[in-house]
Amino acid sequence: MKIYGLTSEASFILPSIETLSIDDLLDDTATVKGAVLHYTHSNKGKLHHWVQRIRQHPHPRIYLMPLALIYETEKPPASLQKQFDECVSASQLVSASTTKSALFERVAQWLERVPNLDKDTADSSIPFKILRLMASRNKRLEPILTPHNNNGFVYPAIEGLFERNDDSPKNSLDFLHKQQFLGREFFKRAHFCPTCDGAFLNFIETCTDCGAENLKKEELVHHFKCGHVDNLSNFERNNQLVCPKCDERLKHIGVDYDKPSVVYQCRQCTLQFQDPVLKVQCYSCESEANIDDVNVADIYAYELSAIGLNAALYGLDALFTSILQTDLQLYSHREFKSFIHIEKARIGRYKKSTSCVATIYFENLDSIFHRLGKRTEQLFKEISAVFKSVFRESDVISALNESVFIILMTETSEENANLALNRLKTAIQDLFAANLAAKLSVGILTRVHRIDSESDLNLMLENALKVNHK
Amino acid sequence: MSLEGLFAFVQNLTLAQVLAYFWPFFLLDMLRYVIIESLLIGKFLFKRKRRRQQRASARHQLFMERPLVSIIVPGKNEGKHIPALANSLTHQTYQNFELIIVDDGSDDNTALICRQLLKQGKIDRFFRNEVRGGKASGANTALRFSQGKFIVHIDADSHLAADAIEQILLPFYLDASVGAVGGDVRVANEDASFATRLQTIEYIKTISAGRVAASELGILRIISGAHGAFRRDVLDQVYGWDVGPGLDGDITLKIRKLGYRVVHAVHAVCYTNVPSRFTNLRRQRYRWDRSLVRFRLRKHLNMLAPSANFRSSSFFSIIENIVFNVFFDFKWIVYVVYMLYTAPSYLGYVFIINYFLYFIANIVQFVIARTLIAPSYRTIDGLTPFFLPLMPFYTGLYLRAVRTYAYLMEFLHKTSYDDPWNPWKVSRIAKKEKL
User: Fold this and answer.
1) What DSSP line would sit under B321-340, residue for residue?
2) 3-state secondary structure of A206
3) The domain A1-120: what is its CATH number?
4) Is B123 on the interface with A (CB under 8 A)?
5) Where is the chain membrane-spanning (chain B) (predicted)?
């Protein structure tokens, strides 16, 4: 792995690290490499821009590139540090270079596991890039609180993937969590402006009657002996507390008097009350709201799930299988093979039954994902409901890959199997028609094979794949 | 002992014997509770008829002025009663009031209920003391934040007749020297039990009739906490309520001491739920009765002493109270001992005749009281008068026993200071300071 340096200062040279311009770095997608970015107080803004350019690059070798931040004397702010995989001082770098490169090596190794890395050169989906970024680092994604963002928090490790400072990181993570690619853990609960979702709110106690903010808070005093209750200020006389009712000095709180509660007095309308109306004003949009209308939302830390890890390695298509897998209880390829074997033996022995293997291929399935976004999950759940209604408990379903399914339909003639598959086809096509615009064509191709003692699963699968390639 | 024997005994009684055997009835109870009270009520009814014009103009004045009235309801764990109370107030004929609820350290959902009602606008002000301070401090907190010209103090578990606020305010407009007005308290759960039937009759006799009579005589000494109205300036002068129990009677005396008149408004009706079980009734009376000793005989005994603000009516108020309640309470012990000594063989006859006499007295009292409250009388089923034959046992034996015990305990042990009714921190100070 080659490590390059990026700096805005011509004089800055690190031993054994070749400096490069950002454009040259981004152009070379063939080699696995890492970059060391040089921090100076003056290039703070530029550094963020560089990180953005690297992370927003579509090629996995570039956007997954391990990045280190090195500084000389002044330590960079935490929000910047956390956008990098490492943050080291220049002096440390020389001595600790071996340990630091461990993480860099990890990323390189992970990239090697990715199949077809050089064939599919573009990862355009941001959620997918998040998955890969997290998978290659194998790190928990934690938010940090920040005043620089309207939301009040940011996930610095993935910040560079996004063009703007809005809530799209949160939405992407939400989506990934819903799809079960990310597990999450409660981090913090926060209040957000109902108008602009801003996190910077001023909580104001206001008068219940006139709504004024100018309130005076006073303690009530209860004198046990005579039962008199009044504001503390009415008891104050020459630095002592004297009961205005019985003129006796109050000596010890809890012994001869106590303070049962607190009252507010409005300086505008003089009303006295105990429960002021709590209002909220947003610092960014200046809108006012009642406390009950404020959005309360939880902020989470995220961790990659096993499904997510798989999806990061094998691409977006794998996502759909996992959705169907959880909903349909698919059998693995190996299990399916065993079922076919048993069925073949059974039919061969009794010579009474007819069973079929059906193959289903969804064409162009990943386009649905791009098109429907969050709604994909819903659509796929509905598709699996169709699967459930068409197939019986005694049928065995397995997925060959993301869009090819094989089903063992026991005690079913070819004719009946075709009938069932046609029903499935129409139902799913109706679903697509209801959910997708006409332009998007998702083809469903099916084929039925009768099982006999000579049937060969591999042959059937080959046939299914032939359908696939038609 | 036989029926003939009884008749023979009655026929042979001479006037001297009648007095000798039944002096408590003829000389005290009949005189005080039947004859004098009836005369006073008669005077009241006569006067009321004559002053009809004045009442109309007082009412006119009240509604012209429309002063703000603060209805204050202090209490602990009373949240469940508040919604019904707030709703009942919407039907009042007099509507210019603010409803102030003070939650005195409730440990149930009272605060939650009240804050909800406050949001809905069903109550006007709500104050919560996190630490319980007792009824007096609760009432004083409410007073502290009230803005009305008149303060009406009611209990959370009671409800008012539709014209109660109007009726209780009228005396202030009839006579400028009135500082406080007591409202009539009647039993809401009349048909709940045997005990509540008896209390219904008792309330009509002692509160409706008894307080009208006392008011006529100018010696009314108590304004019940369940329903009373005060002039705000008068309450400010006495700095509100002092530590209870019995703070109702206490504040009435303090107002009297300042020279204001205290009257009873018999048609300002408040319905309250009375204890439906004798055990609870006993506890309630035990607390009430002890407070009489504590306040009349300890705290306010100075009203008997000639001083600058000495007033004969106040003097008689106290004397009447002490004599009839405390002193005469012990007369029955004297009477029993006396009878055992003088006529032990006639005890049975004397007991039967006494019962008969008190029964007749009860009927007379009830009829007069019923006539008095006729315009504002309300009954659930009209069956209550049939419980009259039991009244001599109820008042003569049951209540008397409770009262005697309470007086003795208070005289000997000052037990009222240990009452859990007040928080311990307050009782401790009160006992130490001999309040």
Assistant:
1) HIIIIIIGGGHHHHHHHHHH
2) strand
3) 3.40.50
4) no
5) 30-46, 347-368
Question: What is the third-level CATH fold of A316-469?
Answer: Alpha-Beta Plaits (3.30.70)
Residue carrying structure tokens 């070819």 = A414
Query: Whose CA is closest to B98, among B138, B66, B63, B135?
Result: B66
Tell me the two tokens of residue A442.
């998702």
Contact B140 A228 (CB under 8 A): yes
Q: Which residues in chain A are contacts of B126 at CB distance < 8 A?
A: 274-275
**How many domains does the structure of chain B reveal?**
1
pLDDT in tens, B308-356: 556 677 777 777 777 777 777 777 788 888 888 887 778 888 888 889 9
How is chain A split into domains, by residue range? 1-120, 208-275, 316-469
Tell me the C-alpha to C-alpha distance, in Å, between residue A138 and each of A123, A244, A457: 19, 71, 38
Can you point out the beta strands (E) in B258-353? 261-272
CA distance B75 to chain A (A): 14
Residue B433: which of A220, A225, A254 has the nearest Cβ? Answer: A225
In a domain, B246, yes or no: yes
Query: pLDDT, tens digit, for every residue of B101-157?
Result: 999 888 888 888 998 898 888 899 999 888 888 888 889 999 988 999 999 999 888
Please state the φ and ψ torsions of residue A357, each to the nearest 5 degrees.
-115, 125
Parent domain of B1: 1-427
Q: In this structure, are strands A236-237 and A272-273 parallel, antiparallel, or unpaired?
A: unpaired
Q: Give me the mean pLDDT over the B373-393 stretch.
A: 87
A146 touches B at CB < 8 Å: no
The verdict on B106 touching A (C-beta cutoff 8 Å) is no
* Domain presence at residue B434: no
Q: For residue B372, what is the domain's CATH number?
A: 3.90.550.10
pLDDT given at position A13: 65
**Tokens encoding B346:** 């006639």
Token pair 């040279």 is at which residue?
Answer: A13
Q: Is residue B435 part of a domain?
A: no
Quote the CA–CA distance of A47 and A55 in Å, as a whole number: 12
Type of residue numbered B83: P
Please measure the distance between the N-terminal and C-terminal CA atoms of chain B and give it in whole angstroms: 53
A150 three-class SS: coil
Average pLDDT taken over every residue of chain A: 81
Q: Is the pLDDT of residue A470 over 60?
A: no
A273 touches chain B (CB under 8 A): yes
Lowest average pLDDT, out of A99-103, A450-454, B165-169, B196-200, goes to A99-103
Nearest-Cα distance to chain B for A260, in Å, is: 5
Query: Minimal Cα distance from A247: which residue of B?
Result: B239
User: Could you tell me if residue B432 is inside a domain?
Assistant: no
- List CB contacts (< 8 A) between A246 and chain B: 239
| Structure letter (DSSP) for residue A41 | G
The torsion of the CA quartet B121, B125, B129, B134, rounded to 10 degrees, works out to: -110
A12 part of contact set with chain B, CB < 8 Å: no
Percent of chain A at pLDDT > 90 equals 11
Judge contact between A157 and A139, C-beta under 8 A: yes
**Cβ contact (<8 Å) for B141 and A225?**
no
| B124 contacts in chain A (CB < 8 Å) | none
Please classify residue A23 by burial: count the beta carbons closer than 10 Å to its beta carbon, then call 0-12 exposed, 13-18 middle and 19+ buried.
Answer: exposed
Q: Report CA torsion sign: B343, B346, B349, B355.
A: positive
Nearest to A32 by CA among A132, A119, A109: A109
Beta-bridged to residue A217, according to DSSP, are: A264
Confirm or reject contact between B429 and chain A (CB < 8 A). yes
The shortest C-alpha distance from A261 to chain B (Å) reads 5
CB count within 10 Å of CB A459 equals 11
Which residues of chain B does A244 touch, with a Cβ-Cβ cutoff of 8 Å? Answer: 239
For residue A272, the chain B residues in CB contact (below 8 A) are: 145
ipTM at complex level: 0.75
A433-448 pLDDT, tens digit each = 777 665 556 677 788 8
